[in-house]
User: What shape does this take?
Amino acid sequence: MKLSFKRAFDAIRRLGRSAENKADDPVSLVLLLREPRFSTLDQLRSAGERAFGIPFNGGKESQHFVMQAAVFIIMKAGPNALSFLNYTKPYGATDFPPEFATAFPKANQREAWTAHKAWTAVDYVKGGKNLKVEYGVLAALCAEVIDTPCLALYEPREQTLIPNDGSLRQELKRRWGSRLT
Assistant: This one.
């Protein structure tokens, strides 16, 4: 698997952009975090094992692995490849206007957006071919890494925000697949 840093940085540059041309947007879920506390490689391996029911104990040659590549973390789960980017500032801090948070209809959405201090983007590498499957894979993994510091999950393609209020895991299942339990 070859990582394209250009594509990854292009995805970052699209933060806050108009949703007019969604076909070019990355297939991504973003965990909005209360503090910059990110999952370790071991935690991601364990989350992958729980999400997909397969061991992640191999190296790059394996069908299932997690590894660090520069600023990104890569997870390979069979035919699926995911990349993780951790950032220590609010999501889209320079790309979204200050009033962006007021556009969310629910108070808990606005509060989560305003309160987050860091984020982790989980992108489906070379996504856009089968969104239902790709978002199902992302949702399965994200459901296993959501914990207390995660205030909400943001879906950039649709600009939707789901607060982590105890029902986030169920909402991931409802939206993106029955693979989650």
